Amino acid sequence: MALITITTDLGTTDYYLAALKGSLYSSTPDANIVDVSVSLRQYDIKQAAYTIKNVWKYFPKGTIHLIVMNPDYKKEQLLIAEMEGHFFVCFDNGILPLAFGADIKNIKVFNPSLLTNHNLIFTQVYSEAVSLLASKKSLEEFTHPALTYLTYNFMQPSLSDGQVRGNVVSIDSFGNAISNISRRHFDDCINGRRFTISFSSYEIRRIIKHYGEEDMDGELMCLFNSNNFLEIGIKRGRANTLLGLRVDDTILISTNG
What are the residue ranges spanned by the domains of the chain? Predict the structure, then answer.
């Protein structure tokens, strides 16, 4: 049985997502399809990359991860990468390098014959790709090495002794602002000293372990989330709305004195 995840901006209002799933079931009847997120911001490859980067590891080896975002109609190059027994399939739109950086190696291209017949949302292309992967054939039988492909990189924090300058990289459905500052960045640069976290026109001087530590609704909080990245939230509130936080906003952590 093929386990397939879908990460996409197709949404649920139109028939597009259902058409994609129907095509997948037609080509691979025993498939088990899991929606990771099907209503991402349209054309937002950074949100797609952030999502797949943080979710794939929770699935078993052999999972096929479809990232259906902003197909490149000009190049029509469908990529596949294998990492730790997982397969990632998406068009050449920069998502794979954006999500995994140097960790993703040996990116391959499905043979062009796969793309000869397609419709607007490429349902046949994805279903044929999944069918080939589910057949357990060797990748060399239907792919070849990718000689060139689009490459993007997430902004990385600026690090120095006593200071970390990072950015908001995602706003989740609860309005929490998630940064690119990891627990390791924080520990290495702050090293147990007192600190201030500054963003917009706000400051906070402590990091809690989980949201349950705060009792009062509306309380401003910072914590490291399940993926060990600094997150800014408000107890039973939306930090992005109430604090004016947006993707790419600066977050500064500096020691006191």
Answer: 3-145, 158-255
